[in-house]
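Incident log, support desk, overnight shift.

02:14 A customer reports that sequence design results differ from what the structure should imply. Their input is reproduced verbatim below. On-call engineer (initials T.W.) acknowledged and began investigating.
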């Protein structure tokens, strides 16, 4: 029997003036923590950025789509594979099987977002044509195809479905529990939002016209963020073979470290990389170390990064001494922690994670 295994990712990352993640009023998202206002980037925003990077890290058949347009995806493939079928008839065929499977993602206005893998789309494409051509009574046909359709939507989940989960309110049997959890990123220190007043000049206005063509303001802040995520390897291992498992966790690690939400990116060019990455392999439970920053970090003369690193290590040491076991393995990028964690670069970190997951996947066999 395999033990539990969790991979905890802790990142300290400085973001210059930016508006990475906005609320409904266009202001950068914030949160109160430790009695101080903090910059915040929602977990949804960073998971979206990670999924976009997955397209560069995984093959097309290993990732999925979260969309209302499943009907269009499947009907398009039906027409590609069967030139004699019109797109209108294909959509009707798809709507029938999606309704039978309990998925509200047909071509009508009542469709909802649904997470589906590329391989599941391929399976549904074949089943839609087969269902349409099956010449038996409707009730008998539905009884025959319903379990097959549900199995097609359960089998061959993509990496992003396994990592981030899938909820199907209309048919809970299609749900997938997320193997990964991603925390809202918060600044290690107190922040105050600022405003950029800008003007845009009309290139074709007369030279004697001193007025601007457009006026506006953009709200922004700058911060040193603490980011945390964890992956439950036990949730993945039943759906992936050892090679796929290693690739999935390695890809998640790279995407979490290197991705950046795209809010106002053209305005601020705020693409940065972490100042520190600490990865812990644990066989007891995941541990979020945000408590290191419950007391806001003060900048002093050296900015927030160095003080944030010190606060993080001090808090982690206390947690390991008083409450939890030290990690089974730990690595750090961006600073030297001595015996606390092995110092590596990013490429070495990804290789170490891959090796550790490979050893775990062969245990108990």
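02:41 Re-run completed on a clean worker. Output:
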């Amino acid at each position: 029997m395999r033990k539990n295994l969790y991979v905890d990712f802790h990142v300290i990352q400085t973001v210059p003036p930016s508006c990475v993640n906005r609320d409904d009023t266009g202001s950068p998202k914030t949160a109160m923590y430790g009695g101080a206002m903090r910059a915040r980037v929602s977990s949804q925003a960073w998971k979206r950025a990670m999924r976009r990077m997955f397209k560069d890290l995984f093959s097309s058949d290993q990732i999925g789509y979260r969309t209302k347009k499943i009907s269009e995806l499947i009907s398009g493939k039906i027409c590609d594979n069967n030139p004699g079928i019109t797109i209108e008839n294909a959509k009707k065929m798809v709507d029938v099987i999606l309704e039978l499977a309990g998925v509200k993602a047909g071509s009508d206005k009542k469709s909802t977002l649904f997470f589906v893998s590329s391989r599941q789309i391929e399976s549904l494409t074949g089943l839609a044509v087969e269902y349409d051509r099956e010449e038996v009574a409707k009730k008998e046909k539905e009884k025959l195809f319903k379990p097959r359709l549900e199995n097609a939507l359960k089998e061959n989940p993509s990496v992003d479905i396994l990592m981030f989960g899938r909820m199907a309110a209309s048919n809970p049997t299609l749900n997938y529990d997320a193997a990964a959890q991603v925390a809202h990123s918060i600044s290690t220190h107190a922040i105050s939002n600022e405003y950029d007043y800008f003007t845009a000049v009309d290139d074709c206005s007369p030279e004697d016209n001193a007025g601007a063509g457009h006026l506006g303001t953009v709200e922004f802040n700058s911060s040193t963020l603490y980011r945390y995520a964890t992956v439950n390897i036990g949730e993945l291992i039943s759906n992936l073979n050892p090679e796929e498992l290693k690739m999935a966790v390695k890809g998640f690690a790279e995407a979490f470290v290197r991705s950046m939400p795209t809010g106002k990116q053209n305005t601020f060019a705020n693409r940065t990389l972490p100042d520190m990455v600490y990865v812990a392999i644990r066989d007891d439970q995941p541990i979020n170390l945000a408590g290191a920053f419950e007391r806001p970090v003060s900048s002093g003369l050296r900015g927030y990064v160095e003080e944030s690193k010190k606060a993080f290590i001090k808090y982690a040491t206390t947690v390991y001494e008083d409450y939890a076991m030290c990690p089974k393995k730990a690595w750090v990028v961006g600073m030297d922690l001595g015996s606390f964690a092995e110092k590596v670069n990013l490429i070495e970190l990804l290789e170490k994670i891959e090796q550790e997951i490979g050893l775990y996947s062969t245990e108990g066999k």
